[in-house]
Write a structure and sequence with these properties.
The protein is of the alpha+beta class. It is built from 3 helices and 6 strands; from the N terminus they run αβαβαββββ. The chain has helices at residues 2-9, 25-33, 45-50; strands at residues 15-17, 37-39, 62-64, 69-71, 77-84, 87-90. The longest helix is centred in the first third of the chain and has 9 residues, at 25-33. It comes from Methanoculleus receptaculi.
Length: 101
């Protein structure tokens, strides 16, 4: 992705930021090898900061194929709301995960 930015702008960015999904060894190595400054928190950042994960793990959601909805770990029904880019979108689980997760 950085290569595309350089190609489009003819210059390297001073700072690169990304979400934890880009926190991989290869990406960190690329930044270091190319002398780039990156702000990419690892996936443990939220846990280290707040003492719990930001989201419930996918394995805790239960799908009901008969009704085409999920039940979130808080016991709330999450109904289908739309299709976007060939993927179904569901209502959000409106509760933060408990600290013990």
């Amino acid at each position: 992705m950085v290569e595309q930015v350089v190609k489009n702008t003819s210059s390297a960015p001073a700072v690169i930021s990304a979400d934890p999904g880009y926190a991989t060894f290869d990406n960190y190595a690329f930044l270091k090898e190319n002398g780039l400054y990156g702000l990419i928190p690892d996936s443990r950042h939220f846990v280290d900061t707040y003492g719990r994960p930001k989201y419930y793990p996918k394995s805790l959601f239960r799908y009901d194929p008969e009704n085409d909805w999920y039940t979130c770990p808080a016991g709330r029904i999450m109904k289908f709301i739309a299709t976007q880019k060939n993927r179904k979108k569901w209502q959000l689980c409106p509760v933060s995960p408990p600290p013990e997760l």
